[in-house]
Specification:
2 helices; about 110 residues; globular; alpha+beta; four-stranded mixed β-sheet
């Protein structure tokens, strides 16, 4: 029987959250509260965000490389959250680290990471 190893499999990457990630998440939570979305619904959504991010510890290349799509010089990947939001991240295999960037609304133009 042949075993196939996927990139990032059997490795546990360290997650590093940027300040812009924390700020964007806080702003998003405030925005949802302003829309009168229930605390329970907000909590479930935030849990889904962190679940998707934590899966990167094992499957670092789980989501699509979008460097060309957004004309980024440094490779970056995108996690799509629902139909409106995206989180960009970068994988640094030599340091076994994943840098988690800001949460963007798809309606925002000028995406930088």
């Amino acid at each position: 029987m042949t075993s196939v190893s996927m990139a990032g499999e059997n490795m546990s990457y360290k997650l590093v959250y940027t300040a812009s990630f924390h700020t964007s998440l806080e702003n998003l939570i405030r925005q949802w509260a302003d829309y009168e979305i229930s605390d329970a619904t907000i909590e479930r959504y935030v849990q889904k965000i962190f679940f998707a991010i934590s899966s990167l510890k094992i499957f670092s290349n789980r989501y699509h490389d979008v460097s060309e799509l957004y004309d980024l010089e440094t490779p970056a990947r995108r996690i799509i959250i629902g139909s409106r939001y995206a989180i960009f991240y970068r994988v640094f295999p030599n340091q076994e680290t994943i840098l988690v960037g800001k949460i963007f609304n798809f309606k925002q133009g000028n995406i930088e990471f």
